[in-house]
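Researcher: Quick sanity check before group meeting.
Model: Go ahead. Protein one:
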Amino acid sequence: MSSEWTVHGSRPIYTSAWVRLDLVDVEPRGRARYEHHLVRFAPVAAVVVVNDRDEVLMMWRHRFATGTWSWEIPSGIVEDGESLEAAAVREVFEETGWQVDEVEELAYVQPIGGMSNAEHHVFLAHGATYVAPPVDTHEADRVEWIPISRIQGMIDRREIVAGVAVTGLLQVLARRP
């Protein structure tokens, strides 16, 4: 027996360049139809940048929505017509001032699948070259290289809490020899 829901239609409630909120007419199997909120986002590309000293490029930043400070990896919205890889490379440069040449797939996450179509594509980059101060100066108060050996403890102490950062960093830790 399938538990797939039937979608009868949807209507936008709010739309901006960043997000769209829809009311979707759904019918779970064996249940009455109802309208369910769905938050639609553009895909996000994020990058764990690791250097040859076993350090990760991190950004210390404030998130007004939660009122918290934490360490994050470079990440951002994939622009229309942009490949995931190009967005990942661009975000590293814009947010940190460091340039990576290549990225490889590391993880794929749907962070809130019950209420959103959000997709986070996490990449890994080996090495980076400092080019200039960050273009997006509002993104972080500090950009630093953090030893990988400190990452698990930082996650445990809630110094790293962003889902895309935790996902990528745990993947790196899990794949270490």
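Researcher: Fine. The other one?
Model: Protein two, sequence then structure:
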Amino acid sequence: MKFTAAQIAGILEGEVIGNPNAEVFKLSKIEEGTEGSLTFLANPKYINYIYSTKATITIVNNSFEPENEISTTLIKVDDAYKSFSKLLEYYNQVKLMKSGIEQPSVISEGVTYGENLYLGSFCYIGKNVTIGKNVKIYPNSFVGDNTTIGDDCILFAGVRIYSESVIGSRCVIHSGTIIGSDGFGFAPQEDGTYNKVPQIGNVILEDDVEVGSCTTIDRATLGSTIVRKGVKLDNQIQIAHNVEIGENTVIASQTGIAGSTKIGKNCMIGGQVGIVGHITIGDNVRIQAQSGVGKSVKDGETLQGSPSFNYGDWNKSYVHFRNLPKIVADLENLKKKTN
């Protein structure tokens, strides 16, 4: 996919200084620019690279005036960093601009879908599924019976959506993710075996949720596992049955949340955090990476450690943890002197 300097300037409402017909087909850092690449200069500490870069086009701030000869074509804008981000977003939209139903694919009876559907090859859409407009479902994906998917959603290749799931509008679900698999419910028997407890609930993702690759969100035993609007989930996260995650909470990779725990809104949870079941975590909570949370947490708290406790207290305690051998040696010496 190629773009000229004139086309890029039109998208960014910028001014071309140099060759308006210069073409680019890839992106690069300014210090690694090569012919055919587009880059940007926003940080003054990289200004020297503008004179040596081999990038064909460089986006710069309006205030930039070269002091030496340059070979790259410039596009001047109000804010080079924001303009480059805007261009990335535009490029991503163009790249994902697909429509039509590829074959082979299966659309079962009772399915309804809106305009501009893209359904990749080897997809299976179950019975009575409702799909909104401008939805993109990439190859090798599965959507189970009676599922609802809102407008402008993207399901990347290899996504699995089990039956009765509800996906809101503008959701993005990345490859390998499973929505609606059975919750981990087994009843111990007298002979030491376990009987499976039927998991007959569902999963609800509200609007503007993004779920990273290879994340699993289990269906509820009864009722719904709910991910509220604006939540962002990283890769490889486990969310158990009947969990509820509040609006605009973000959770990093390899975190596990046990069943029936309620997490508030605007929380930030680091990677490899373990959270036990049947507790409540308040709004605006911060949990540092690799923490183990074993009890309910009040609004606004920041936690670290396993088991986790107040972040400030943890930092103070860590000083003593590191000095523990010396502290023990000092105690032994005191014991000897007092004996």
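Researcher: One line on it for the slide.
Model: The chain has two domains: 3-95, 100-314.
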